Amino acid sequence: MMNKKKLTVSHLYVSYHGTEVLRDINFTIEKGKLIGIIGPNGAGKSTMMKAMLGLIPKDSGSIEFGGSPIREMRKKIAYVPQRSNIDWDFPIVVKDTVLLGTYPKLGLFRRPTKNDKEWALECLAKVGMENFADSQIGELSGGQQQRVFLARSLAQKADLFFLDEPFVGIDVSSEDVIINILKTLRDEGKTVFVVHHDLTKVENYFDDLILINKELIGAGPVNHVFRPELMQAAYKAPLGMLESLGVGI
Ligand SMILES: Nc1ncnc2c1ncn2[C@@H]1O[C@H](COP(=O)(O)OP(=O)(O)OP(=O)(O)O)[C@@H](O)[C@H]1O
């Protein structure tokens, strides 16, 4: 009962081909937060997200949400991978991409209903992309593609959202649309994890931070984690450089 409103990662270890990438990661996050996962290049941010989702094997550790293993709520989890990992030449139009979000995981052969289609268009409208419903996904700009993938995750009616670097290579107005939707989801009680690297936006965007560099350096409210000592420990950057990014000010 005590864990009902929490997500807990315990003793998470991950390696690729025998090389350890994540070592003994432990943290607990309250439900209903917008959480930034930060750390230098190669720190293991994407790896941690994938391991939390069960997309790659872990060496050991557990991930629980509300006291149960996270895999038991797979249908309630939406994941938006890094844009660079998606095959944008795949021939599919925008509205069908969003409609995929409405398919229950094992119901691929179910035909979408009229309701599903309307809901998909509604989700598309939430991200301001309703006029592109019939466009090929590969023809869109980076920001537009990212919005469509967010719409697909909205269509899924998930409780937990995981986005890997959603703001990389996109225009400012798409970034605004996306962060506002993520904040709205948080206000509705959803839990949203975002792998992120632009430190200038951290205080504006997130409630909590998970700061890693292979190991956990800090986890908790932004003002506890976004501090010179911890940031320096993770980034190994000179203090002056961190200050110019607003750390600890
Ligand atoms: N599929 C893979 N096979 C082998 N090594 C990998 C694989 N994916 C990532 N790595 C390595 O694991 C480490 C962590 O990578 P990861 O992509 O998780 O870091 P990251 O913090 O997300 O980095 P970035 O900010 O550069 O995207 C890196 O050293 C990377 O080279």
Spatial order of the strands forming the largest sheet: 6-7-8-3-9-10
Number of helices: 9
Helix fraction by DSSP (H/I, runs of at least 4): 25-40%
CATH class: Alpha Beta
- By CATH's scheme, which homologous superfamily applies? P-loop containing nucleotide triphosphate hydrolases
**Residues in β-strands, percent:** 25-35%
Structure classification? alpha/beta
In whole angstroms, the N-to-C terminal distance is 38 Å
| CATH topology group | Rossmann fold
How confident is the prediction overall: mean pLDDT?
A: 90
Cofactors and ligands: adenosine-5'-triphosphate
Q: What is the string of SSEs from the N terminus onward?
A: EEEHEEEHHHEHEHEEHHH
Q: Segments where pLDDT lies below 50 for 5+ residues? A: none
Produce a short descriptive summary:
The chain has a single domain, classed as 3-Layer(aba) Sandwich (Rossmann fold), CATH 3.40.50. Helix content is 32%, strand content 25%. The chain is built from 9 helices and 10 strands.
